[in-house]
Amino acid sequence: xxxxxxxxxxxxxxxxxxxxxxxxxxxxxxxxxxxxxxxxxxxxxxxxxxxxxxxxxxxxxxxxxxxxxxxxxxxxxxxxxxxxxxxxxxxxxxxxxxxxxxxxxxxxxxxxxxxxxxxxxxxxxxxxxxxxxxxxxxxxxxxxxxxxxxxxxxxxxxxxxxxxxxxxxxxxxxxxxxxxxxxxxxxxxxxxxxxxxxxxxxxxxxxxxxxxxxxxxxxxxxxxxxxxxxxxxxxxxxxxxxxxxxxxxxxxxxxxxxxxxxxxxxxxxxxxxxxxxxxxxxxxxxxxxxxxxxxxxxxxxxxxxxxxxxxxxxxxxxxxxxxxxxxxxxxxxxxxxxxxxxxxxxxxxxxxxxxxxxxxxxxxxxxxxxxxxxxxxxxxxxxxxxxxxxxxxxxxxxxxxxxxxxxxxxxxxxxxxxxxxxxxxxxxxxxxxxxxxxxxxxxxxxxxxxxxxxxxxxxxxxxxxxxxxxxxxxxxxxxxxxxxxxxxxxxxxxxxxxxxxxxxxxxxxxxxxxxxxxxxxxxxxxxxxxxxxxxxxxxxxxxxxxxxxxxxxxx
Length: 555
Ligand code: TEU
Ligand code: CA
Description:
Shape: globular
Catalytic activity: Hydrolysis of (1->6)-alpha-D-glucosidic linkages in some oligosaccharides produced from starch and glycogen by alpha-amylase, and in isomaltose
Number of domains: 3
Organism: Exiguobacterium oxidotolerans
Helix content: 25-40%
CATH superfamily of the largest domain: Glycosidases
Strand content: 15-25%
Pfam families: Alpha-amylase (PF00128)
Distance between the termini: 24 Å
InterPro entries: GH (IPR017853), GH13_cat_dom (IPR006047), Glyco_hydro_b (IPR013780), O16G_dom_2 (IPR045857)
Strand order of the largest sheet: 11-10-9-5-2-1-15-14
Bound molecules: 1-O-alpha-D-glucopyranosyl-D-fructose, calcium ion
CATH topology of the largest domain: TIM Barrel
Structural class: alpha/beta
CATH architecture of the largest domain: Alpha-Beta Barrel
EC number: 3.2.1.10
Low-confidence stretches: none
Mean pLDDT: 98
Number of helices: 15
Largest sheet: 8 strands, parallel
């Protein structure tokens, strides 16, 4: 496979609202990001993925875009953006932006036109339907943010489709003119000098013609429309067309956020010969702790399922496509709280999880705060949460008579605001994120967990991430080596990577007690480990301490 710059790159995701506030209004901003570029340079990352910074009424924190070519005024100006781009490039850091084109804001100029009349030239940019003859909604699909996926608009007495919030009407990709406008917009950003796109729910843009009703799961209020829009009928055609018309003409990174994409789908999306996208974000490992009732139906973590899933992806995409690797983003709880131990073994388990992910094959993504082991937050009341997904879900479930204590616990475990609390820079008020009042409360553990402390401690999680990033930059084995799962006890995840006659063995313990693993290789050359001393080992066995991670090299 032809080598690409994004093969050995590590990406750092910034959620600008929560990163760093430079002017005391409680909201992170572009100047705040510029102030921290040296920090990111020290960490050693290659690319920043910026969550949306476009003009938006913030119904979904910028994932509802009012103007694709203006900057959100809370975040700064286009001049600030150009500064950020220049300053990042001057440090050898690339910038990838978010592309949110499954839907726009209902305040976008296209939608303002579209809703005016049935014969408006922009009518067909969105998905409009009349009610059925019996007065019911056009179909039975539910919105991903609760309630039905249809909203009545009085001007024309028709419904528009919104897979997400009412303020996020879905764009109609069947309309060629709309598609061309999107490609032209992408091209203008690329000409501005950005280095690629993370493409929001891009595998949802093609819907089954006729928008048929979907199956209703037992106990569900609405049909699961996903059957008619996840990896829909024209998705590969649209992606190829987009690639040919825009980013395919530039040497940039594209990553498609793709809920419901299987390994078979991912191979089609990322096969370099097909010219669609470079890599996808799979959701499969993020869904392992969800029961049949969906994300709020929380199951205990099961390491065996994680091993099976990662192994399936590592093996399937080898030499066929390209993986992206992530534990965290702005939609997911903090990994150290989710799959590790965020109390007694916070530092050990955060480093162990980092080792596991960063030595796999694919492009790793670090979500802001992950590099200092930030944890989930547990607000005591639902009013302290800001996320529209949480708020809508709460309202719907309370109306159905759900138990508020149990639901609040599910929010503590899975709510998106876990990832969105402001970055804890130091032990000062509000963790040094702002001199004003933060838009979302800071996690109360900021005095113990913060960047300043991490930078002072040579054994911190931060410096461990730095080392892992360096390993990827220095060793082709980490980038291109072939993966194999090693059979071990239940609480251990062990795998090897092999490249040009060299093999690395990665052992990761999820146990809270010592665990002995049998080994069949030399154990003298340790590449990295998360304890200050080497584990007790012979050529036959290694005794792993709680949440220990260790990597051996053999030739
Ligand atoms: O997320 C898509 C998505 O599927 C999530 O909404 C996910 O299903 C949810 O968090 C899990 O319950 C993308 C963005 O990352 C997210 O922030 C946006 O809210 C969403 O699209 C709509 O743009
Ligand atoms: Ca600000």
